[in-house]
Amino acid sequence: WCLNQAGAGLAMLPGGSLHGIERLAAGDAAICALHVLDTETGEYNLPLVRQSLGSLGVVAVEWAWRDQGLVVADGNPRGIAAITDLPAVRVATRQAEAGSHILFEHLLAGAGLTASDLDVVGDPARSETELAMMVLEGKADAGLAVAAVAHQLKLGFVPLHRERCDLVMRRRDYFETPFQTLLAFTRTAAFAAHAIALGGYDISGLGTV
Asked: What is the pTM of this model?
């Protein structure tokens, strides 16, 4: 939505955070959206950026903090209240390269669970919307995604975690017209209103380097 409204001349390439890092490093993408938890430090994104892109000369810019949790059917008919409830229901998952999958495995480990304890259904979803659609269509009972996608599809949501999503790019691209046009649009009332309407987003630090 934001790329279309901003008219910045940027197009979206699908894929998870780790796939995005690879494309940025290979020169196949100008900007990478990243939300990867470093489970050792509890820090978001920067440890991975330093490890994977340190030699490129990059800049990371805060995009938003987002509420992550379990997307469930409207009214939560299975009574899912915590990660420990998942072994009793059908679970949709994301692909291994997704930041949401890394967080999901971390939350499972914190509850003393692994993926082998779950009834995982279907192929890994390639996006959070695809995962939520599996719940909406009755193919799964729960899966980890952001609050906004649950709100959009009128599904239930069980909050579990707050994460930071950053945009990473080469320093030179930070100053180029496409990104600066995008950044300018994020300062408009229309952008702020849309973030509120989506739900589960905190954009108070957007643009922080």
From this structure: 0.88
Distance CA 166, CA 209 (A): 9
Neighbours of 112 (CB within 10 A): 9
Q: Identify the bridge partners of residue 32 per DSSP, sorted by sequence position.
A: 168
So what's the pLDDT on residue 15? Answer: 82
For the record, the structure tokens of 137 come out as 């269509």
Distance in angstroms (rounded) separating the CA atoms of residues 158 and 161? 10
- For residue 26, the one-letter residue type is A
Instruction: Give the gyration radius of the chain's Cα atoms.
Output: 17
Please provide the distance, in angstroms rounded to a whole number, between the alpha carbons at the two ends of the chain.
23
Q: Quick one: which of 62, 66, 84, 35 has its CA closest to 150?
A: 66
DSSP H stretches of helix in the chain: 2-6, 17-26, 46-53, 99-110, 128-136, 147-152, 171-174, 177-185, 189-198
